[in-house]
Amino acid sequence: MGKSETIILDEAAISRALTRIAHEILEHNQGTDNVALVGIRTGGDHLALRLQSRLQDIEGVTVPLGTVDITMYRDDLASRGSLPVGKTDIPFPVDGKRIILVDDVLFTGRTIRAAMDALMDIGRPRNIQLAVLVDRGHRELPIRPDFVGRNVPTAASEQVMVRFDDQLRPVEVCLSKP
Amino acid sequence: MAFNHKHILGIEQMSAEDITLILDTAESFKDVSLRSIKKVPTLRGKTVINVFFEASTRTRTSFEIAGKRLSADTVNISASTSAVVKGETLEDTAKNLEAMKPDIIVMRHSCSGAPHYLAERCDFSVINAGDGAHEHPSQALLDLLTIRQKKGHIEGLTVAIIGDITHSRVARSNVYALNKLGAEVRLCGPGTMLPPGIERLGAQVFDRIDDAVSGADVVMMLRIQQERQGKTMLPSLREYSMFYGLTPDRMKLAKPDAIVMHPGPMNRGVEISSAVADGPQNVILDQVENGVAVRMALLYLVSGGEKLEDSAQ
């Protein structure tokens, strides 16, 4: 039996959500002082780039942007095998920064835990805040996002996917039912 | 692409895609060694035993550091401290090690095929850290990573490997690896150090170093393995140095941007002059640095290999 898919956010809705998150980041941090964005590969890094552009449009400031690959920090090597390891690229000192960790979908929280471990190994940020486009619930760890594009109640068996075009722009968020 | 090898026994069994995946993974792991906290939790809870039945400083230390940087528990066993000196067979040693439930055994042995023997009989993953005159896959992979970093590509390059080809597992693994990635390989050494039929591996054979080095992008010098030489192989080290030693004048025959490699340890003044060994074209310490990253990649990839094989069935 085939899967059924529902589009829960289209391109315009994603754009509005990212703009709102950018405003919330600025309000929460009272500007861009010491703020830096770090996207989680892959998906979060593309969204972090969009947020950087939004912050630039609103404040006229280009905040530092980095990317973190969490493959080395996953806790499921035994069950999933050795996945391809990507590059972590954080071209600024992490120490003392207010890091906005960006991911596309927040699910169990294990990816975020791994990303925080990876960041802590690189330096000592002042704090880490979490921005996600979709929070679908089913947390297995005590992790709560600071900025959310859309809360989407889901069943554990469903999938939520953020699709990007060739220019890595987010075009839709789909909910897939088995 | 998935890596579905449980063991790393030699380059001969690998595809070009396998080699590229290992090099790409090593590039990512190299960043870990450049941080202030040089450790990731990737292999937490895994046990790696380095069993070295032959003397080694560089390779053993490199594997040990690689394991530790991935948070594995690493244990070293050398021939002098193993029960082999008390007459235990390799199979009995292996079975005893297996009973201690290691995940990976890194093995160096003077007999070609010893790691294969172990891999067929035991449950753990085996990584060949050099077996006799057969293969030294991790050395060839770190050589390829160094070449790729310095040249940007491997395909189309001309690589001259010079020295004791007969006894060199490094040369054999490099011929396989470079051929698979599309490089032209030249082998050069005195007739007594070139095994008959070596060209069947896919390399051109030269007896004059000047011809082998001319126009080369990479010049890889091999150590004269004095401990393995019979009296009939070399009249004298001085004569070898005169005819096959890499000097600044000979390097001028290679391409201007050619790099000089050596798997170490070097016999300065024998196969390579100090002026070349310390010159601007040498990448010998880059090879050592890349060795840790390549071995991290191998430990990581074989740790998932078994599961991927299972899931493919």
Can you describe this structure in just a few lines?
The complex is a heterodimer of chains A (178) and B (313). With 178 residues, chain A is an alpha/beta fold. Chain A has helices spanning 11-29, 44-59, 77-80, 110-122; strands spanning 4-9, 35-40, 65-68, 98-106, 127-135, 147-151, 159-164, 170-177.
Overview of the structural elements:
With 178 residues, chain A is α/β, with parallel strands linked by helices. Chain A has one domain (5-73, 88-176): Rossmann fold (3-Layer(aba) Sandwich), CATH 3.40.50. In chain A, 29% of the residues lie in helices and 30% in strands. Chain A contains four helices and eight strands; from the N terminus they run βαβαβαβαββββ. Chain A has helices at 11-29, 44-59, 77-80, 110-122; strands at residues 4-9, 35-40, 65-68, 98-106, 127-135, 147-151, 159-164, 170-177. In chain A, strand 2 (35-40), helix 2 and strand 3 (65-68) form a beta-alpha-beta unit. Chain A starts with a strand and ends with a strand. By secondary structure, chain B is α/β, with parallel strands linked by helices. Chain B folds into two domains: 7-135 and 289-302, Rossmann fold; 137-284, Rossmann fold, CATH 3.40.50.1370. Chain B has helices at 16-33, 58-69, 90-99, 114-121, 137-151, 169-180, 209-213, 237-244, 248-251, 274-277, 284-312, and strands spanning 47-52, 73-78, 104-109, 125-131, 158-162, 184-188, 204-206, 218-221, 259-261. In chain B, the strands form two sheets. Chain B has a five-stranded parallel beta sheet with strand order 7-6-5-8-9. Chain A binds chain B through residues 69, 71-74, 77-88, 117-118, 121-122, and chain B through 1-3, 21, 24-25, 27-29, 31-32, 35, 37, 39-43, 70, 297, 300-305, 307-308, 311.
